[in-house]
Structure to design on (584 residues):
């Protein structure tokens, strides 16, 4: 009797699991794989066949199938099951693109290279892409670093001291809204190297939102927080760093997020116009020599690295703002 | 040891500038003269606009009198000080600090956080929050938060403790519990306490003397001695008579 009920329990538990959803990704990838293997390459294309896309599908199929099967038998992996539809749909879309390009050549192959060609660039050109990425990362680190420090400093000064506010705020309000890319001509002539010019532009792009949000954050800290600090014996300086800045942190993080996005934009523009090396420069250069597969590969590198940076930024924010109630809504 | 926390209000007047250009200045406090003895518990009571909160803020040093002066142990009150602790209706705990850090903020600002670790723990224990040291304020109920606010002030050993409707936002049961806890804390210290309240029962239950205040003009109308033995019973005849006496003065006769 008891054995039966345990057995039934197990069966129902397995039944409760979303088998269809779990395997959706694998099935979609399998369909893409069948299409890739069964349909011959278009006759128009003269490039030699590359195995990368097929390999990608096979690896993805193996991984998703293992995950889905593990889930069915042992549970867990809710995140994967939740994302399964999306993963499947993404591979279907990629498969469709593969059909349109590699298999039937419905759109211009020179502007729209097949997935396998793009992956090929990522593999063959990996070393050079990495070099470009590191160069961009260095620019970004300098620019964003300076932008964050100066932005915080300016924001604190104009948010806390009315005299600083009187003199600096008009400057912030007039220079800030100008897209920093508009300063490219000036920056290129004002600085000795294009690297310095780019650092300046990126710093400028991130400085403004960080300044404005630091200021508004400080101004909006509850007045009673300062009054309590007064009765606890805080000096003016202590009130800045023990009350105003921590109270403004949620806003400051919005500023840093906006500033980082602005920095990405400026980095790409700066690299496409004046700076030698860097991932933006790579894309522009490859476009000029009509290697669109390389352009797409560059875009993939940007997408992965930038979203990784944003993800890290969010993790830092979640840790620093762990005192906030509930989830932050942006 | 000489008892401290003696307060003198000397011809105190506070006028706020007009809100609009055509408006007239608002007199928030009209010539208050009074004395508070060391260790006394004073309740300031009256309808809104009677200047009770203004009086408290002046005493805290958060506002400056337009005329007259306040002396605490003979020293002129000019600015906020850790000798005059303040507890608001809203606990105003710093949400980014843990309970321990909130209570320890005073020592930290004075640069003696490390030396006073044990003291911080003592005060957390005193207000019954042992085990919540590492929690953040949002994880605590309103009553618990208010206790943290109390501990944060007490740790500075103020001469005077000021309350601005401290239990106004709490439910009736928590409020009654907090009253008794406050009186228990008071037995162990000899801090002078001044509490703004709009709750007559609260005033009679806690205070040694009740300052009744009325608006237009905002004056200290009468000082009522609550010479009832402690612990006080809220349902005793004498208690109810005291309440009625105060309501009478405030013109709320039924």
């Amino acid at each position: 009797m008891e054995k039966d009920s345990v057995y039934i329990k197990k069966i129902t538990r397995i039944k409760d699991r979303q088998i269809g959803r779990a395997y959706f990704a694998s099935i979609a990838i399998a369909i893409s794989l069948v299409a890739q293997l069964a349909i011959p390459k278009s006759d128009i294309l003269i490039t030699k066949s590359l195995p990368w896309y097929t390999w990608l599908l096979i690896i993805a199929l193996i991984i998703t199938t293992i995950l889905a099967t593990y889930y069915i038998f042992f549970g867990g992996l809710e995140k994967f099951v939740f994302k399964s539809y999306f993963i499947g749909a993404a591979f279907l879309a990629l498969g469709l693109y593969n059909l349109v390009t590699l298999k039937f050549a419905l759109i211009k192959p020179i502007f729209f290279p097949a997935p396998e060609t793009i992956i090929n660039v990522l593999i063959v050109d990996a070393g050079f892409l990495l070099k470009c990425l590191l160069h961009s990362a260095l620019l970004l680190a300098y620019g964003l670093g300076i932008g964050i420090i100066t932005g915080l400093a300016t924001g604190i000064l104009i948010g806390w001291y009315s005299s600083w506010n009187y003199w600096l705020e008009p400057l912030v309000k007039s220079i800030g809204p100008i897209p920093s890319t508009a300063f490219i001509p000036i920056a290129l002539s004002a600085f000795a190297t294009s690297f310095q010019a780019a650092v300046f532009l990126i710093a400028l792009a991130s400085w403004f939102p960080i300044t404005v949000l630091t200021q508004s954050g400080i101004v909006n800290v509850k007045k009673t927080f300062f009054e309590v600090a007064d009765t606890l014996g805080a000096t003016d300086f202590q009130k800045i760093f023990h009350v105003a800045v921590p109270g403004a942190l949620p806003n400051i993080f919005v500023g840093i997020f906006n500033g980082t996005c602005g920095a990405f934009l400026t980095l790409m523009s700066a690299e496409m116009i004046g700076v030698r090396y860097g991932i933006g420069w790579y894309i522009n250069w490859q476009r000029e020599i009509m290697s669109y597969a390389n352009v797409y590969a560059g875009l993939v590198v940007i997408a992965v690295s930038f979203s990784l940076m944003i993800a890290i930024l969010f993790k830092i924010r979640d840790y620093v703002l762990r005192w906030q109630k509930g989830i932050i809504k942006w | 040891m000489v008892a401290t926390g003696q307060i003198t209000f000397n011809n105190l007047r506070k006028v706020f500038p007009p809100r609009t250009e055509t408006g007239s200045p608002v007199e928030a406090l009209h010539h208050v003269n009074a004395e508070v003895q060391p260790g006394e518990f004073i309740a300031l009571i009256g309808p809104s606009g009677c200047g009770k909160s203004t009086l408290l803020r002046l005493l805290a040093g958060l506002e400056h009198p337009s005329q007259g002066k306040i002396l605490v142990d003979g020293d002129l009150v000019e600015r906020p000080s850790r000798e005059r602790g303040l507890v608001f209706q809203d606990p105003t705990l710093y949400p980014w600090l843990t309970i321990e850090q909130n209570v320890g903020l005073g020592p930290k600002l004075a640069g003696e956080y490390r030396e006073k670790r044990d003291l911080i723990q003592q005060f957390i224990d005193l207000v019954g929050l042992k085990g919540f040291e590492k929690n953040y304020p949002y994880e605590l109920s309103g009553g618990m938060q208010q206790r943290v606010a109390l501990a944060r002030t007490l740790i500075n050993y103020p001469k005077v403790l000021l309350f601005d409707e401290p239990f106004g936002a709490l439910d009736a049961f928590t409020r009654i519990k907090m009253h008794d806890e406050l009186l228990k804390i008071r037995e162990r210290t000899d801090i002078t306490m001044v509490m703004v309240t709009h709750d007559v029962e609260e005033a009679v239950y806690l205070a040694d003397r009740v300052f009744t205040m009325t608006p237009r003009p905002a004056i200290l109308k009468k000082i009522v001695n609550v010479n009832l033995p402690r612990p006080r019973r809220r349902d005793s005849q004498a208690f109810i008579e005291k309440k009625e006496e105060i309501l009478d003065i405030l013109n709320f006769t039924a």
Q: What stands out?
A: The interface with chain A takes residues 60-62, 79-82, 84-86, 88, 90, 92, 94-97, 105-106, 108-110, 136-138, 152-153, 156 of chain B (CB under 8 Å). Chain B has eight helices and ten strands. Chain B has a mean pLDDT of 90. Helices of chain B lie at 52-60, 99-103, 105-109, 117-126, 142-154, 172-188, 200-206, 237-249.
